[in-house]
Amino acid sequence: MVSAQEAIEHNKAQLVAIALKHNIQSIRVEFSGCGDDGCIDCILLTDTRGTYINNPDNLDCSEFQIYGLERSQIWTGSGWESPNFSLNPTLVLTSNLIEPLIYELLERSGVDWINNDGGHGHANIDRNYADETDLSFHLEVYQRYTESSLEHEREEVWSSPEAATLPRAILINAAHPVTEDDFL
After folding, report:
1. Which residue from 15, 27, 14 is spatially nearest to 53, judged by alpha carbons?
2. Phi, psi torsion values for 109, nearest 5 degrees
3. How far apart are CA 154 and CA 115, in angstroms?
4. What pLDDT digit, counting tens, does each position of 57-108 carry?
5. Which of 137, 88, 111, 101 is nearest to 4 (CA)?
6. What's the CA gap between 3 and 26, in Å, rounded?
7. pLDDT tens for residues 148-161?
8. What pLDDT, in 10s, does the model give residues 53-69?
9. How far, in Å, CA of 105 to CA of 111, rounded?
10. Spatial CA neighbour of 27 closest among 126, 138, 120, 128
11. Integer Cα distance of 184 and 173 in angstroms
């Protein structure tokens, strides 16, 4: 059985191999979420010449095998567990490899970018200039939140001119019983 971490590491290595084969220099993934929902908004790939790859899903990735990283979990009675991971052919680069990998890494970041006011951010996967066979990964997740603070408060007692002739209200305190003296 393969652990989730082993599946992720395998998929990262496959992404490096695909990037080398297809001369991918950079992958930028942008995401956003709020109100209990979130998604990857776009995936942009550029080649080693700096040109955008218009249809990354048309790249031939048939020789590569990846592990499915579905977020579905099963209840075992003692806790939630991920199902067994199995190798699948890489059919579509973005939806079968990049998206599930980014969603998994976002989940592991611990930042709630989906619920309430949500959040947004991006991940950059770039070919490392020091070693062309490595990819560097950089993830930025911003969380939105609503903040409120008291900016002004005013309290006054307004009285009419006739108020001076009316009896004053008495604050009744259980520790101090009302007596006739309280009305004088």
Report:
1. 27
2. -70, -25
3. 35
4. 888 888 888 887 665 555 566 655 555 566 776 667 888 889 989 998 998 8
5. 101
6. 28
7. 888 888 888 887 77
8. 988 888 888 888 888 76
9. 10
10. 126
11. 17
Task: Work out the burial of residue 124: count CB atoms within 10 Å of its CB; fewer than 13 is exposed, 13-18 middle, 19 or more buried.
Answer: middle
Tokens encoding 35: 């109100």
Q: Are 74 and 83 in contact (CB under 8 A)?
A: yes
Q: Which helix (H) or strand (E) holds 13?
A: helix 4-21
- CA 111, distance to chain mean position in Å, is 5
Query: What is the pTM for the complete model shown?
Result: 0.72
* Gap between the terminal Cα atoms of the chain: 87
Q: 153, 74, 148: which is closest to 117 by C-alpha? A: 148
DSSP 95-141: IIIIHHHHHHHHHHHT---SSTT-EEEEEEEEE-SS-TT-EEEEEEE
CA-closest candidate to residue 145, choices 112, 170, 102: 112
